[in-house]
Amino acid sequence: MYIYLYSCCIPVKGAGQSIICDLQRNDYEIIPNSLYEILTNLEDERSLDNILKKFDEESQEIFHSYIEFLLEREFIFIDDHIHDRFSPIDIEKFETPNVISNAIIEYNGSYSLSAMKNIIEQLDYLRCESIEIRLYDFPTSATIGKILSLFNETGIRSINLIANYQIFMTELYFENISKKYRRVREVGLFNNNKRINIKNRLFPIYFLEGEKVSEKYCGCISPRAFYVNMQNFTESRQFNSCLNKKISVDIDGNIKNCPSMSSSFGNIFNSDLETVSAIDEFKSLWSVSKDNVKICQDCEFRYICTDCRAYTVDSEDELSKPLKCNYNPYTNEWI
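Above: the chain sequence. Below: its structure as tokens.
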């Protein structure tokens, strides 16, 4: 009998433990490093009997429990002969036609809606798929509607709306938004002191800590922000999971990698996004993957976690660990 790991189930080793990323079911499972070693050596030895012979009696019992666990989770299958027709997934290759794949636009009225329209049209030309809009003031329902309407004739697929909670933001209000503006994928609200519960059928509405919208909420690392899918996994192996092919416009119209960063590469009134996106210095952080970042390179979650180069433990070292990550891969504890 021979063990086969399904191609969509990828083991990732950390300092203290490992995980199996199920890229088909978009989930992961924590496993011990000893099981990681077995799974990554299957190309050399698949025979259950031969693997079992390597262990003493006590370890054989543990090995059997591993097999039961893997079969139960459907990470492996066992067959009675050797197959040569199950090709591994190429996880070393990430390609996308987007010049810019995602963007952040901050808005507080300091520049006009016509300028906002121009930004959106430029992003559409660069084949941007996803945009986060941060509304810094307390815009009226009509203003929010005007901003969302700017996307109607574009190919932009998803909008993440971040705003300050206001009394008109009821379940009925968001139900109307979900019907009229189908590109809205999620909404984050600040200043919900009363903790009012708002539900929506078509997109999640979540509440953020803090009194009002701020760029400082960026960079928080937690399991709630893990994304287990083929695109994120393969991209994270080669590129930065936050900044790759990202561009941002802050509240003053400055063009940046991220609004939380100090470096600016022009302003929307004197530069265009296509020109900025081609600047080598602007793109320098795109290739900083978690395999390059200190401590993160030893973390089992590095290919499903987001990253932050704006807030780091050492502000002078662009390869230091994200400041807002409280996970220790050496003790496997969230502090």
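The two ends are 43 Å apart (CA to CA).
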